[in-house]
Write a structure and sequence with these properties.
Length: 241
């Protein structure tokens, strides 16, 4: 029932876009993600064509993979900044220094170093995706281990992000300064121990910097317009691992 509703809801958006082109109100499907998918759907060369069902599935994947994760990150970041007023002030200063009252632009947003550190620390403490799975396709040796085919492996982001051997005894404290150098410096002994976006060829499509810009832009708006206070009495909520 719910699945059908979601399917129809996306179809409506698709139809609306197609109608605009059919009635010549618009001369293309658009350059955004949906526009590119619609172009592929209407492409006459077989290798490029995707079915309407695939198109809807792609939209669902992007929506669900992107919505909850981003909300979670922004929610925890606001919370952490609310209880760490010193960092809140530092980040606000950074934003005001770079943009003043101007709108953020992609070039200067890349210079938001402190904000990037805060996001990393927020995703370390409260990773929006707490783990992911891989299935072993055929027997493979990994170091001293032999992994048989069809084995399901679970990688716990939450566990590794809270391992004191990797991060130190202050592992449960909010310390964005860990990320003041490259991420591999923060993890000391294991450069792959920080993986909020997963790992390997199927990692998050949004993990590159361009995707991260959006988050920084949103946080930026909040930094300039709000003061989070009155939460000094709160302490970190700790996940049970
Ligand atoms: C803070 C925000 C986000 C976090 C922490 C996050 C995290 C992740 C993780 C852990 C995976 C699984 C990776 C793996 O199996 O190795 C993933 C996959 C994916 N994410 Fe994200 N994500 C975020 C935002 C987004 C956004 C905004 C989008 C879309 C605009 C998105 C699209 C996807 C897609 C399409 C996949 C599947 C990739 C594939 O299977 O090839 N994510 N994400």
């Amino acid at each position: 029932m719910l699945e059908k509703k979601i399917h129809n809801c996306i179809l409506e958006i698709i139809n609306e876009r197609e109608e605009k082109v059919k009635s010549s109100e618009e001369d293309s499907f658009g350059n955004d993600f949906l526009g590119l998918l619609l172009k592929a759907h209407h492409d006459n060369s077989d290798s490029q064509t995707i079915s309407v069902d695939d198109l809807v599935e792609e939209c669902k994947t992007f929506y669900f993979a992107g919505q909850e994760t981003t909300n979670t990150l922004l929610g925890w970041t606001v919370f952490l900044l609310a209880i760490h007023i010193d960092w809140q002030e530092e980040v606000r200063k950074e934003v005001l220094n770079l943009f003043g009252r101007e709108n953020p632009n992609p070039d200067s947003i890349a210079k938001l170093k402190l904000m990037g550190m805060v996001f990393n620390e927020s995703m370390r403490l409260y990773p929006p995706v707490i783990g992911f799975e891989r299935k072993v396709e055929r027997e493979v040796r990994v170091g001293e281990l032999i992994l048989p085919a069809n084995l399901n492996l679970i990688f716990s982001t939450l566990a590794l992000h809270h391992d004191p051997h990797i991060w130190g005894e202050d592992v449960n404290q909010f310390k964005p300064e860990r990320f003041s150098e490259r991420v591999s410096e923060a993890t000391k002994i294991n450069s792959t121990a920080f993986f909020p976006f997963g790992m390997g060829p199927r990692n998050c499509v949004w993990s590159n910097f361009v995707g991260f810009l959006e988050q920084k832009t949103q946080q930026n708006e909040r930094e300039r317009s709000l003061n989070w206070c009155g939460l000094n009495t709160l302490v970190h909520y700790r996940h049970s691992i």
